[in-house]
Task: structure prediction
Amino acid sequence: MKESRHTRQGFWAAALIFALFSLPVMAGAPVPDIPEAVKGDQCVEETGFMRKNHMELLLHQRDETMHRGIRTKKHSLKNCFTCHVVKDAGGQPVTVKSPKHFCRECHDYAAVQIDCFQCHTSVPGGHKTTGEKL
Result:
């Protein structure tokens, strides 16, 4: 069976339209703008490992501290803020209520709710619970 000229033209027109609409998708989604650490030469773990496993480390730290009474600093939330503090124009650390907060950059991007700061402070040096909610 012979293809008609109109069928071939229709196919190429559809392919061209599909390609044009696919270009933005193929370009990739925008990625979050993760602030650089402000202190220290390197993180307590390798960057890729931390991106994938930080929650497991924080949960393990919580279990060790709360259930077993073992308090270490390496993977503590307080230790994270020592390096990963983001400051506002006035030089003050931003709280989790700010979209510029270090944790929110990725968590907002991934649509993951952060509940750490309902009990913990979201800025370095804070010692009391804050009850901050987004």
Notes: Residues 33-134 form one domain. Residues 88 and 112 are 23 Å apart (CA to CA). The two ends are 64 Å apart (CA to CA).
